[in-house]
Amino acid sequence: MPARDTDTAIGAEVFSPRYDLSDSELEELTVRLLAERARELPEHYRLVAIEVDGRSPFSNVGRHVERVVFEATFGNDAAEMTDEYGAYEETSTFFISIDRETHTPSGVLRIIEDSQHGLKSLNDAAREPFNLELDEAFRFHAITDPTEIWDIGTVAVLPDYRRGEAAVSVQLYRAMYLSALVHSIKHIVSIVDDRPLRKMRDFLGIPFVPLADTPPGPYLGSKKSHAVYGYVPHFLPKARAHRDTMRGLLVRNALQRLVDGTEDDSISLDARPGA
């Protein structure tokens, strides 16, 4: 990725990744992040998505949301999150959704880039229950350059923002897709719980397939998770074709946002496609 201003210090603060912010710390960081990016975001949007480098203190807003959601859903507390993601913190980028009316975060999507530590989903897929060799995955999906892969490390949305066509997950997927175009990313990998994966594929038409035909299994507190793969150039045409299906018609407004980018100016990226 291009070099970025990571805002590694806020005042006298020394940054370290944290998953357990206090209410006051969460509020302060969220308000500061909004203030910094406000000029880029039209005032009429209540929910905005902001891309944040994983080395920035603002990224702890995203980590806090991850922990809150995963602890409630799968029992993953701050210590477990630190243990699981510690090797990947410096190569993480967070797309953070914020509710401007309440000045609180509403959701987050984390991507992990390749490094000396590899990609978390591929590393984890090499172990039980998936037992998938890295070389096999690369051959199966014709991957030749690991720098062209993004790992969706997490998608976490707070309960009040999960339902309806305005669900922030749509905004987060769109933000990730636009950023992937900027950085010439061709391949997406992830390990996803069964329930959100079904929603992503069946209703939004996001074309995830089993990673090298690997069957699902239990993973980090989830009883049934899937190791998945997506080819980025297929995302837009597949989702566009999905609009005309019965399930696509049920969420047509959400698909307009995802496919046509009808609310792209509610998203603040580090760089824009074509910029």
Automatic annotation (TrEMBL):
Domain of life: Bacteria
Protein name: GNAT family N-acetyltransferase
